[in-house]
Amino acid sequence: MRPVLVTGATGTVGRHVVAELQAAGVPVRSAVRTPPAEPDADRVVFDFTAPDTWADAFAGIESMFLVRPPELTRVRSRLLPALAAARDQGLRHVVFLSLQGAERNRVVPHAAVETWLRRSGVGWTFVRPSFFVQNLIVIHGEDIRDRDILAVPAGHSRTSFVDARDVAAVAAAALRDPAGHAGRAWTVTGRPAASYGEVAALLTTELRRTEPGRTIRYTNPSVPAYVRHARRTLGLPTPLALISAAIYTTARLGLAAGVSDDVDTVLGRLPLSLAESLHLERAAWARPSIPAKGRQE
Ligand SMILES: NC(=O)c1ccc[n+]([C@@H]2O[C@H](COP(=O)([O-])OP(=O)(O)OC[C@H]3O[C@@H](n4cnc5c(N)ncnc54)[C@H](OP(=O)(O)O)[C@@H]3O)[C@@H](O)[C@H]2O)c1
User: Fold this and answer.
1) Atom of ligand 1 lying closest to residue 138 CA
2) In angstroms, rounded to a whole number, what is the distance separating the alpha carbons of residues 247 and 54?
3) Rounded Cα gap, residues 61 and 42, in angstroms
4) Is 204 in the pocket of ligand 1 (CB under 6 A)?
């Protein structure tokens, strides 16, 4: 069996795609930018923007999990040339990590990738997830763990969250059965959508299992206050702070609450609930416990 090339293999979704495929006995070639410390036949150094890394990564590859790295916004010049090279080297099927609603939103870079794939002659499956639960770690982890706050300018509207594990499971199903998933677009969400006030309450419940009295507060800042906080306190680069503010504004307007049952359709099971996801990720927000003898009397 030829290996599946997994791009973004160190990322939020890609790491679970690698695990899903390996658990199913599918050979995986993980594409990574940093060379492994020890020689590793299952890893290949790959960068979408470094053509000298492409030939080795694509050698013998027929199927690929494609992640558009968040920092690559200009996909026509920085991502699609690598895909064209992969096609020329024999790529036959791409499972693309797109975005919920990419079919209606021509501004997002994912739309250009979808359009290219539709015209490429390569088979494709689009996995279009809603908002990752793991953003509560990647962007807001420090606030929740160290300050007991969830600072998001999303008002009281609901957002449709999804666990990266469910996104990866749908992608892996498509990678294992390209013929069954070719030309399909799956909108991958959890259910039901939740407000950030509800998320803070669920985080509180989860953390109180071992840290009685802890309360996570949803602060619902204004957009300018959020951007200031994201830049100065969380250290987000300004473009990322602005993009995330725009995403939360979309949520505030009630446009991010759509849910689907595609996880059930593809996997034959329900998506993880928000409470289940928060339980699985609780270590990210837990305060390190102080050993008894180190405590001040
Ligand atoms: N966050 C959400 O809620 C959400 C929802 C729907 C869709 N999405 C989409 O999901 C995608 C991101 O997926 P993710 O969150 O799993 O990724 P991620 O955690 O942000 O990780 C990005 C991955 O891309 C790799 N990478 C970065 N630059 C690269 C380059 N020039 N060449 C090759 N690889 C490179 C990184 O490798 P290194 O280890 O080398 O850095 C890392 O593995 C984005 O397109 C985003 O729009 C996100």
Assistant:
1) 19
2) 33
3) 13
4) no
